[in-house]
Amino acid sequence: MMGIGSHAPTSPEFTSIHHRRFHPQTTVDSPHLRLYPLGMSSSDSESNPNQIIEHIVLFHLKPDADPSAVDAMMSSLSGLISLDSVLHISTGPVSGRRSNPLPFTHMLHSRYRSKSDLTSYTEHPAHVSAVASSKPIVDDVMAVDWVDDYFPGSPAVSPGSALRVTIAKLKEGAWDSEKGAVLGLLRGVKEKFPSIEQLTVGENFSPGRAKGFSICSIAVFKGENELKELDAQSELLEIEQNDVVDSVLVLDYVVAAPVQTASL
């Protein structure tokens, strides 16, 4: 499901997180969790055991949306963890916005083993139903997807973690080498900030609802205090000042404790 946005209370009803249960030999806490490469079956997974697919949906909810309808929407989206293809999913309000003026207020973040698993999720009747039921309270939506080929360890994001989502729009005609320089700049943030627990960076492969944005990154911190350390530095300015970058969207999001929801 793709994203939402609008200022809303940060109560547990508005935010939820779930992780897929794995067989005992590949639990969510195992550093040896196999994430299958695109188009490959489990028997082929040894060729790239560290791949992960990131899916971000940003929503702008209508200012007059009924809180109970927002609760129902978040609950419906979070319930999609019941789908076999979903490794991780969390939903809730955006806690901070910087740079680009797009007024997104809520976010969905989920992870998959492969592009085919992401497709299975988007085409599943439960997802289609969740999207349809949310439309009356959604003003705008934006979604991006990318592959990170080196993501060892668990796909889970712990409750209380703070996420910094950075999405850049490049100027028309940017060369591949110039795109690579922007990707490298984002990847280099982890060397400067050891407090980043997880980092994925990649190029969006789903342009239909991306509003022209193409370079994507998620940095996961233990909590908001660690995220504030990043704010004290100039990492955003470095990206904005790159000659090929047209604009940058930066969103912060704090993962709340799981909310119990009925299985779909």
UniProtKB/TrEMBL annotation:
<dbReference type="InterPro" id="IPR013097">
    <property type="entry name" value="Dabb"/>
</dbReference>
<feature type="domain" description="Stress-response A/B barrel">
    <location>
        <begin position="162"/>
        <end position="253"/>
    </location>
</feature>
<dbReference type="InterPro" id="IPR011008">
    <property type="entry name" value="Dimeric_a/b-barrel"/>
</dbReference>
<dbReference type="Pfam" id="PF07876">
    <property type="entry name" value="Dabb"/>
</dbReference>
<comment type="subunit">
    <text>Homodimer.</text>
</comment>
<dbReference type="InterPro" id="IPR044662">
    <property type="entry name" value="HS1/DABB1-like"/>
</dbReference>
<protein>
    <recommendedName>
        <fullName>Stress-response A/B barrel domain-containing protein</fullName>
    </recommendedName>
</protein>
<feature type="domain" description="Stress-response A/B barrel">
    <location>
        <begin position="53"/>
        <end position="146"/>
    </location>
</feature>
